[in-house]
Specification:
Layout lengths: L4 H5 L1 H7 L2 H21 L5 H34 L4 H53 L5 H27 L5 H28 L3 H6 L4 H43 L4 H11 L6 H16 L1 H26 L8 H15 L1 H29 L3 H20 L1
GO biological process, one term: transmembrane transport
Family: Belongs to the autoinducer-2 exporter (AI-2E) (TC 2.A.86) family.
InterPro entries: AI-2E-like (IPR002549)
């Protein structure tokens, strides 16, 4: 019901009911009260935390594979006469073939590379300190030389203490290791089942969820789901494609310069590249360390490989594969990564950006709805009053 003229002219209406600042503060106050009340009854949500801890990992893995494989399933479904179930089954057979190849060839190779790399880390560090001593010898850089020597002593002590600690804790950590292996095994067994049904019936989920809402809100809710799905799918497919391209580029570059463990370091670079912006720099740290332990010339060649990769990734690969699909400022990305990493660790670093993208869509939609229904924004009123004026010449012209 619209307010009468006397109500609109009253100080209470002007200062409280029709005041954007007061309304915003009231909304924030209500949100804080809700958060406070939820924190007081957090024990109610403990079963949900247990359930998510059990099924969260396979659902997340299945979701990543879903967004990566669903375009292929849709394309084959449109261009062939096969049923969607048969298409998914053939893709699963191909994935099983890749898995068998990985277990037979790739995993043993990777395990050997990791074991050899870890065993040679002290040797690489010794070579690194030897090269640094040759560079810094003399009295030209006495302060820098003392810093390097102190860092060398600290890291040497850390290597020795870490090895002894791991030896002492070996037996006590067996139970936790068995628990982790069991959890990983359950996730690997259950996520293909979840993935199968996501690929088979995932396109029906928005329509199913929409029918729970009133008819006047169904269109807006369906568009919100579409925007969220677009944000997540663009990010996952783009980020995985960029990471794979980065792995290929580093693999070629490290092989050309003859860097030890080049393919393993390239694989590590691809995994680190799943972290936006800072992933490539993190991936280059072990590569540069290994290169410097070999020779200064190898270090210079590794820096050149890194520079070429950054140019190709920044100007060719990322704009083509990832683009600006999320429309998030780089500073915002770094803030989200730091915050999510401190709160949730490695999963937060990987899932923080898509989570922020989903939250951004929801907040944007909610704010747009609030502008339309609150009556507190004059520009919406002006837009509504301008519409008949723009349409009136058309009526006279008929």
């Amino acid at each position: 019901m619209d307010a009468n003229p006397n109500q609109k002219n009253s100080w209470f209406y002007r200062w409280f009911l029709n005041n954007k600042t007061v309304t915003t503060l009231l909304v924030v106050l209500l949100l804080l009260i809700i958060i406070f009340m939820v924190s007081k009854v957090s024990f109610i949500f403990e079963p949900l935390k247990v359930i998510f801890a059990a099924v969260g990992t396979p659902i997340i893995i299945a979701g990543v594979f879903y967004y990566f494989l669903n375009p292929l399933v849709d394309m084959l479904d449109d261009k062939t006469k096969l049923k969607r179930t048969w298409i998914i089954a053939m893709i699963f057979i191909a994935l099983i073939g890749l898995l068998i190849w990985g277990l037979a060839v790739f995993i043993p190779w990777l395990g050997g590379q990791v074991r050899s790399f870890v065993e040679n880390v002290p040797n690489y560090w010794h070579s690194f300190t030897k090269v640094s001593d040759e560079i810094l010898k003399g009295n030209k850089y006495p302060q820098l030389n003392s810093i390097v020597n102190e860092l060398n002593d600290d890291l040497t002590h850390w290597f020795k203490s870490s090895s002894s600690d791991y030896a002492k804790k070996g037996f006590s950590s067996v139970s936790s290791l068995v628990g982790s292996i069991t959890k990983i095994g359950v996730s690997l067994v259950t996520f293909p089942v979840i993935l199968f049904y996501m690929l088979k019936d995932g396109h029906r989920l928005p329509k199913y969820l929409t029918h729970f809402f009133p008819k006047r809100a169904q269109s807006s809710f369906q568009q919100t789901l579409k925007d969220i799905n677009s944000q997540i799918s663009n990010y996952i497919r783009g980020q995985l494609s960029v990471a794979f391209a980065v792995m290929i580029m580093f693999g070629i570059g490290f092989t050309i310069i003859g860097l030890p463990y080049g393919l393993f370091l390239a694989l590590l670079a691809g995994l680190f590249n799943l972290i936006p912006y800072i992933g490539s720099f993190l991936a280059m740290l072990p590569a540069l360390g290994v290169a410097l332990s070999v020779s200064p010339m190898m270090f210079a060649q590794a820096v050149l490989v890194f520079a070429v990769e950054q140019i190709l990734e920044g100007h060719v690969i990322s704009p083509k594969l990832l683009g600006d699909s999320l429309e998030i400022y780089p500073v915002t990305v770094l803030v989200v990564l730091l915050s999510a990493g401190n709160l949730f660790g490695l999963p937060g670093v990987i899932l923080g950006i898509p989570g922020y993208a989903v939250l951004k869509v929801l907040v944007t939609k909610l704010y747009s709805w609030w502008r339309q229904v609150s009556g507190l924004f004059d520009d919406d009123d002006d837009a509504q009053t301008d519409q008949p004026t723009e349409a009136s010449p058309g009526k006279h012209s008929n």
